Every structure is written in C-alpha cells, then in structure tokens.
Queue: 2 jobs
Job 1
Amino acid sequence: MAYHGKYEAPEDILKDDDLGREDKIRMLEQWRDDKTAYLRASGEGMGGEVSADLLKRIKKALASLRE
C-alpha cells in the first residue's frame, strides 16, 4: 500500500509532482481495489466504517489521469 500513511486523499496523489502518471494510476488503482474489498467485507457483516465518498474520489482521480 504505497499510498498508505503518505497520502490523506486521492487528490494528494494527483498533486505529487515526484510521481509519474503511471505511478499515480497504479497507486490509485491499488487504493480503489483495497476500498472495494473493504466495502465487500463490510457488506458481509465484518463491520467497520467505509467512506463511499472516498471511493468515488479515487475513481474520479483515476478518470482524470486517463483522459
């Protein structure tokens, strides 16, 4: 989880000039996949608070890189 601990929001990854476009995409995809898996687990009664808004923001950031 390269994003974990360093970035508070997907937008922070987009703003990081030290990362290349492909690195940003890879990190956002990993973050998206982690949140999607967590949502699925939460739906199966494993509990925990999940931010659907965060998942939407991650997807929006990915879309902006793919335009």
Note: Residues 10-66 form one domain.
Job 2
Amino acid sequence: MTVIGRLAQAVPSARCLVLTTFDVDDYVLGALRAGAAGFLIKTTPPRELIRAVKDCAAGGSALGPSIVRRLVATYVGVVKQPVPELERLTERERDVLVVMAKGLSNAEIGLELYLTENTVRTHVAHILAKLGVRDRVQAVILAHRAGLG
C-alpha cells in the first residue's frame, strides 16, 4: 500500500497533492486510485502550484494540463456521446467548460475568455453543480464525451 493510501485510511480528511518529476500515466493513475487529490509535475509554475495546493485544500482537485489531456484521450475515447446535463449550462458556462477541457487553470481561462479569475471560479462552481460532478476532472471527461474538448 502506498503512503497516500495509508494516509487516506489514517486521516480520511487529508488531501494529498503529488508533486513529482515523473510524468508517467501509471504513476498518475496509481496516485489517484490511492486517493490523491492532485498530481502535478515539478515544472509547474509557482503560482499554479500555490493555486493547486489551495484548491486541493478546499476540496477540489488539481491535475497538470498534459496529464488531463492524456487521461481524457486514453480513458474517454474518441466516440462522441450525448450528455444531456450539458443542456443545463448557459452559453458562457459552456465556453468556460470548453476552455477548462484544455486543462487550463482558472487564471488561464480568465485570460482566454477575458474574465476575472473570480468570475471563472464562479462559473466552474456552477458547471460542477449543474453537471452533478464532484470535480473539474469529471466535468472535463463529460465535455470530452460530448466532443467539446
């Protein structure tokens, strides 16, 4: 059993964020299966690392953009599927979801869509609630299933 798994059993409220030099799918999946809230590469810029720590501490998750792209490409497949929950989103929320599916942070989404980071955070919260998912990764998977990302 990994350290993450042991910690998750001993302290269920603990949130683990893995920071490593190894950008290997098996490591990512192993860490997430063990209960990690996030997985980042050591080349992550300091601001994004700080944001990821805060997001994970607040109950969210954090995965590096390259990791998100690979996970989605590998585990979702290329066949588009209808996702009725997407109909609940406003046009702007859908825009945010499409950019979020690229693996961008809230700050990067804001720059791309000309929104403040707080506005992006609000849209992300609404997206998660409307889609009935617990984190960004699940929302991105739904977006990719529908062919949005």
Note: Residues 1-63 form a domain with the Rossmann fold fold (CATH 3.40.50.2300).
